[in-house]
Specification:
CATH topology: TIM Barrel
Largest sheet: 4 strands, parallel
Shape: globular
Strand content: 5-15%
Strand order of the largest sheet: 1-2-3-4
Number of domains: 1
Number of strands: 4
Structural class: alpha/beta
CATH architecture: Alpha-Beta Barrel
Radius of gyration: 18 Å
CATH superfamily: Glycosidases
Helix content: 25-40%
Order of helices and strands: HEHEHEHEHH
Number of helices: 6
């Protein structure tokens, strides 16, 4: 669930929590236990205003508690990453730390250095989520050159040797 718009009024914050709980319950009932509701951290849990914190803290932990997973924005640093791991406690794998492959304000710089961020995320036992996975198709002649696209993808995932 990605709400990147301010809730109309403060009373909708409580309604959002009820909605998420009901949605998760229905997903499990209709689809099965493998269904997952993942929250993208974009709303302040008390004001309903747009709020990208890029970390999991006690204040927004309610979304992880209600949902199956929590997806952070990609503007984190090592301090925020460590704080996220501490606050995730025994649900570290349920926290997906965002990283932007295009490198827009993301730890490690993105593109062929995305592995730098992934390594830090993995060290703490957290999961990761990648923004912009089509980067190598959309750029560097990936659209017109399938072989070049394949080489760029290989270099991204396995490094350049």
């Amino acid at each position: 669930m990605n709400f990147e718009a301010e809730l109309v009024s403060i009373e909708y914050v409580d309604k959002l929590f009820v909605f998420l709980s009901l949605l998760r319950s229905e997903l499990k009932e209709q689809i099965g236990d493998h269904a997952e509701l993942i929250w993208y951290d974009s709303i302040h849990p008390h004001t309903g205003k747009v709020w990208w914190l890029s970390t999991l803290v006690p204040e927004n932990r309610i979304f992880l508690d209600i949902c199956d997973g929590f997806f952070t924005d990609y503007h984190w640093d090592l301090e925020r990453l460590n704080l996220t791991a501490q606050n995730a406690v025994d649900r570290r794998l349920d926290v997906y730390v965002g990283n932007d492959i295009y490198g827009r304000g993301t730890y490690g710089g993105g593109i062929y250095n995305t592995f730098v961020a992934i390594n830090e995320i993995k060290k703490l036992g957290l999961s990761y989520a990648l923004f912009g996975t089509a980067r190598f198709y959309e750029n560097d002649n990936g659209v017109t050159g399938p072989k070049l696209h394949a080489l760029n993808e290989e270099k991204f995932w396995f490094g350049s040797n």
